[in-house]
Design brief:
Chains A, B, C, D, E, F: InterPro entries: ATPase_dyneun-rel_AAA, CbbQ/NirQ/NorQ/GpvN, CbbQ_C, P-loop_NTPase. 6 copies of one chain form a homohexamer. Chain A has 267 residues and is of the alpha/beta class. Chain A has helices spanning 2-6, 22-31, 46-57, 72-76, 92-99, 120-123, 163-166, 179-190, 194-209, 221-232, 237-249, 253-266, and strands spanning 36-39, 61-65, 77-82, 85-90, 102-106, 128-131, 136-139, 145-150, 170-173. The first copy, chain A, folds into 2 domains: 2-173, Rossmann fold; 179-266. The mean pLDDT of chain A is 89.
């Protein structure tokens, strides 16, 4: 059984560059096992942060990429059939609750609003998970914590968390790191010079100003790292930016020209 | 079999601070096994109340967090396959009816309107649950009672209980406790001083006045307890309120500023 | 096999107070095995009436609370897997048809319109039920009768019975009993005095005048019995009416005040 | 195997009173195995006609009440699991095609338009039914014929047969029989006098003039037989008409009064 | 295994009267295994043509009547359970690809647009079918060809083939044959005289002018053959046309009268 | 196990004519295992390009034609039942990740937006695939890369990739090759002369100018190759163009005439 949980241990410290007091606040929240909600745009480091914290706290981390087809059974578990008949298979949420892992539900608004209801009994002082099909009332391990992420920009009337879910979580805001830190991150992750990394960050800043004016979302730190990696492999920076930054974010010819021009300005 | 039901016993008296005659009314309702409906906003103590009553009455409590994907089989039970062939597994409603537990259907409006129909034969004088797949007409244990909760604020034309369901229940209104009691509760549950708890309640009161004016729901007692827990752990009260009170309830920058200002007023 | 059907016998005569010639008409309808449709508002006694008739006629009664998720297999039956392979399990409709029970489909409009089509071959002179999955053409037992209920008030364009279904049934109208009879019923069922019961009926009459003017449905006889039961247990009549009559039927503050005022008038 | 098909034989000649040349036309159509479509309002005798023809032609009759949830597998067949593994179970359409029965799909427009596509290969000169799951191309028995019914009055843009389906069938129109014949039928089926039967027919004629003016459908011959049966059992004719004719067809108070008045005119 | 495919051989040459160069074009297309799309109204001979070509080319023909409920597994195959565990069962598409048959998807627009995507890898130069559930990459037999039919008249925004599907097929237009040929076909298939067949064709021509002016579709050659068959059996031509031509295509009284008048003109 | 993956090796170098620096950019992207997105119209060579690259890089290629009914299990894998109980079957994505193949998701926008979420953990630095049903956290083989294609022309509000998906990919634009290259490709693939191939390209160019003016999509290179193949088999060029170019792309008579005229201009 420990084998199953051990594969979820974050054994190498992930590179994470704190931007404010988020590490301390998360530690305090963990100390009272407060369920946490990480809010921010795509690719700004929420997933990396939770990996960093799992490593720092020495707890296994079970990540679930949420999606609309996810059923309660996908989270909680199900019976499987084998030679001896049926055998219960814990889902990721039950696994985390039973073994004291941090369970990270990524992009939780993608899940059907009502599926998220199954986490409720784990988020108040009961800290239980009813495995109704198994007839077991699973009491969460003392180390268990639940963390969710979501991107407020996607939120619509149709897809938002219910207040009765939101009010069960503490919240931390995330955003793209400020210029100096982001430059450092890009250089560190790709091996390119701070100067070239700074140019990539400048392009990203321009794109972020276009958010809501033809772009759904600005360029993320993750994309800058992709571009930097290509440059580090010897690809011409303009081609690298075309492939890794511009083509992925837009199909609109005008917007593409505007971003290509921004690339040309810096390289 | 008793093992299964015993895990649902509420062995420790939960902390509950009565606000009116709700305890006596519930006892009277239980004495005639009247099905009960607890109405009120999220996080005001409905779940805690039913745990308190289950402990007081000495009955096991089986809680079901309702959701739209819940089928009648999830409530009633199903056949599972094992080495000897199929084996019937009572669902939570059948389990409660058979063993004389209180069955608490939390946020019942989330369930599909027509799924709730399966509770009808348990809520009139027949007190039976037809397990059609099993060919059994389960007569409820004399101790069995059914309790549902719902939040009238969520109610819409699309999602409301049918009159033929509502009329099968007695109703109790819940709301946030009045100032003095709520302060006591927050202090008791977190260990912070009455003075600090009072400040948190003041912030909550401001937020509740904003309900319908940019906030879907005011801050709940449960959230104040989260904030108090962080403060008790040494977190700066302003940070604690940001994490536990403001960030979870709103993504709107103006509303966030208004709530942050309220926090700054008191701390 | 008889064990299965015997559990559906109504061994104790249920208390039922006839209001017109409905008992005689039902007996005549049963004598020619005419399928019957009981029409009327929720909680006015349709279910009790069919139990009374089943007892009077000495036939078992199988009741099915219809819902939108009910499939044809839920009514007709299915194969279950056990150690010897699959085994056929009659559904409630097949069980009733095979053993000569009265099959009562409660709130039949809730079922998907087309699911109700499976009852057609049982409602004309063929009186057969094709169990297509089993390859059996089940000929109904001579004692079998089918009874459905529905509440015309719920009926909409989306959810009504098809004419080709309706025309297969005889119809009986039900309504709340007239004042004197309803008072008697409430007193008989709860043990309170005729005077107090009369006050409850007066409150109900007021509410029934509000139907369509802010109330979806008036207070039912069943609710008066709930209120009376609380009063009989010593609960203050005003509290009893609040819990059992007013809170369940409305969330609208004005309507609640109007009903509370009606309660105050009589108690 | 013959046992299975023998239960579908129509061993007693059903009472059927021809109204025109429909019997001869159907015999000619059967002689070339032309698929047939019976069109007409509910309760006018389409089902009885096909039973009569099956008896006259000496062929088994397999009737399927179509509905929206019917899948192609429900018609064609499926694998069932038993102790020796899976076993193929012919659906009613395959059973009829294999053994040379008449397959009658009642109210075929209720089936999903595209499910009806599975009958196509049986309705052109190929006369085959691909049992794709079984890997068998079933060639229809020479005696096999397919018959469908539908009620043009129900037809809408959403629910009509496709032209590519319609064009595979010959068509016969049905309607309520003319006065003299209908009176005879009602008297014959119930044992009441021709005079009383004539009164019932008169009431039906009035109701049929109201079709489209507040009534979805006029009173059918089948309903008159229900009313007559009650009268034959000694029920007062006015009560019998109320139960068997008026209550089933309308919930509208004005229409009910109009029909009750028509009843009062004749009885 | 050959038994399975042999039942799909078209051993008798079907009667087919070419109208242009469609036979030669199809042969050329087959010689390069170009996937083909047959376009034209219902009942004009598309299915007959593909049977004729399969016989001429000496290849087995597997026909699938497409419908909206058809899943990718229905085309590709699935695991079935038997005594030895699961056993793979090729679907019709896999069967055809494996054994070198012509696979004919009739009325392909009825299938869900995205289900048709499974045929893509078979329609470009890869000619493979990934059986993902089986973990097999099935390479098509050199003789395999895919043919689809569709009726452009049914096409709507909701139900059309995607360009990325259409562009994978060559196209052949079909229509009702011209007068002389159609008369020959009807006489040949039914045994009636050329004179009577000519009258039936004249009626069809009138109906085809009404397409889009009250008729969804004109009378097809297939319907004329039905009418001719009844006449050959001795049915009065006017009755035969009523049953086989007029009643199936319309429920509109005016249109029915117009068509009945056309019949009366010629007979 | 190697047998399973070996069938996905591209052993013959596919014919591919580079149009710009796409080969080098893809190699660089592969060297850092950057997930790639190929954008462009149908039939312009995206699939051929990825086969060419898989052959050049010496990696197996697993292609998945995405569709709306594809579930996460179709990508990730599922338990199958056999004689020894259940056995895990890797889906194509798990297979590719486990064995180091390139996984190509063709027309990824066809998949449900949220199903695509399952690829997220494989597209950031974690490079893992949680097989939740199996309780395994699959770490991708170092050779594994994910490639997706999509056609921006199809994109709509309803069906577009989420930014949080897009930002995980580098992007390469594809289009029809320029005149000279396209002529070469058509001649090479069909064996017709450069002159005839050039005429086909001229027809295609005209059609591409009609895109958005009555045509959804211009003629693709793939269609020109179909037409050329028929010509090489001796079919008259005008007939070949009718069958392979004009009939497949349009049902509109005016557009068909315009394209037929374009064909007549060149042949």
């Amino acid at each position: 059984m420990n084998d199953i949980i051990d594969q979820y241990r974050v054994t190498q410290e992930p590179y994470y560059r704190p931007v404010a007091d988020e590490v301390e606040l998360f530690e305090a929240a963990y100390s009272v096992r407060m369920p946490m909600m990480l809010k921010g745009p795509t690719g700004c480091g929420k997933t990396r942060f939770v990996e960093y914290m799992a490593n720092k706290l020495g707890k296994p981390l079970i990540t679930v990429a949420c999606n609309e087809d996810m059923t309660a059974s996908d989270l909680v578990g199900r019976f499987l059939l084998d030679a001896q008949g049926t055998r219960w298979q814990d889902g990721p949420l039950a696994l985390a609750a039973r073994h004291g892992a941090i369970c990270y539900l990524d992009e939780v608004v993608e899940a059907r609003q009502d599926t998220t209801v199954v986490i409720h009994p784990l988020t108040d002082n009961r800290r239980v998970l009813p495995l109704e099909k198994k007839g077991e009332l699973l009491r969460a391990h003392p180390d268990f914590q639940i963390v969710i992420s979501y991107n407020p920009g996607y939120q619509s009337l149709m897809k938002d968390l219910k207040q009765s879910t939101k009010q069960r979580f503490g919240g931390l805001d995330f955003n793209y790191p400020e210029r100096g830190i982001e430059t450092e991150i890009v250089a560190h992750e790709t091996g390119i010079s701070l100067e070239v990394a700074g140019k990539l960050v400048s392009i990203a800043e321009r794109s972020r100003n276009l958010k809501g004016h033809g772009l759904d979302e600005g360029l993320s730190t993750r994309m800058l790292i992709y571009a930097g990696s290509l440059i580090a492999k010897g690809v011409n920076p303009i081609s690298a930016c075309r492939v890794a930054l511009v083509r992925p974010v837009t199909d609109d010819p005008d917007m593409r020209d505007a971003l290509d021009a921004a690339v040309a300005t810096f390289f």
